[in-house]
Amino acid sequence: MSGFVEPAPTATALMLLGRGTDADSEKGVDCPGELPAPSDPGLVERARKAKDALGDKLFILGHHYQRDEVIQFADVTGDSFKLAQQAAARPEAEFIVFCGVHFMAESADILTTEAQKVILPDLAAGCSMADMASDSQVRQCWDDLTEAGIAADVVPMTYMNSSAAIKSFVGERDGIVCTSSNAKRALTWAYERGEKVLFLPDQHLGRNTAVREMGFELSDCVVYNPHRPNGGLTQQELAEAKMILWRGHCSVHGRFTLECVEKMRQTDPAVNILVHPECTHEVVAAADYVGSTEYIIKTLQAAEPGSSWAVGTELNLVRRLANAHPDKRISFLDKTICYCSTMNRIDLPHLVWSLEELLAGRVPNQISVDPETTKWSKAALDRMLALP
Ligand code: SF4
């Protein structure tokens, strides 16, 4: 069976690999500490020594999109929600080192006890999608919906990939959080309680779930653009819409195009196209299989030996799956590199630095959500956890 074919590097590959900065998508600032050099040959040994010395006090979580050099030290791997749940299930762990991005570390802090400290090895590991919906923008949107006379009919709902402030906003207004695995169940819950849904911040997950899984028409959805007065919508458009989508997207999954799908099918007519619902509607409509990160992993595990797959999700995960299943032909849907640049900011030097700081009695880069935000975010998360 042929091995995984690496996509071609692009001009921005170095930045995507986590070197340099990306001013549009950073959540925090540069790491404040003295980082070990990436070329230090002793990094793996240093990480292992520090991890062993911290023992049960330490629990390392690794998101599926993390680099292999970091994943090798994770006690558990998973998507953002599974990782937050895992952190909550380990109350004896005083330090939760979250190898992922900022909103994930916030969710872990919300769901863990006050005694537990959540650490993000690089504060600059944000999420460009989460950054597309700020608290003030969402409050302005709600004022616009109130002005249009429809706020009372709207249930707000936010994807897990949003800041704690947005989860809190939603929770305070009787709304709910969803993941890409339970978006249909959460939408069903919401439409039992209101005529319309305001879906934050990923327009593609909202549209794909509404149209593919709930039987809505594309014309039932409108897009609220926070950079335009009244979201760029008329009062009539707002009144007629069933689904008000926030104008946000994932910069990684948004890169896959219909052309990528068509080229794959021309090259290999037997190929199965498997994509994440954060991809655009036209890509999702042209794919054979659509689902969350966990769905993608399970689908490839269960696939027939010899079958061919082109996968539209983050490159670190696709490469890891291709290496784990050498009996199947697994390729990356795009022809060029497509990492999540902010996820990739967490590298071995940052992990080593965080662990050695903990060992020295200092808590670096702690992510702490204030009590009021925690209270309402948790209300929205608890509604999701109670979904049938
Ligand atoms: S892959 Fe997309 S949604 Fe996930 S952290 Fe990166 S930018 Fe955010």
Describe the fold and architecture.
GO terms for molecular function: 4 iron, 4 sulfur cluster binding; metal ion binding; quinolinate synthetase A activity. One of its GO terms (biological process) is 'de novo' NAD+ biosynthetic process from L-aspartate. It holds the Pfam family NadA. By secondary structure, the chain is an alpha/beta fold. The chain has 17 helices and 13 strands. The strands form 3 sheets. A 5-stranded parallel sheet has the order 6-5-7-9-8, sandwiched between helices. A 4-stranded parallel sheet has the order 2-1-3-4, sandwiched between helices. Helix 3 links the parallel strand 1 and strand 2. About 4% of the residues have low confidence. The structure holds iron/sulfur cluster. The site of iron/sulfur cluster has 13 residues, from helix 6.
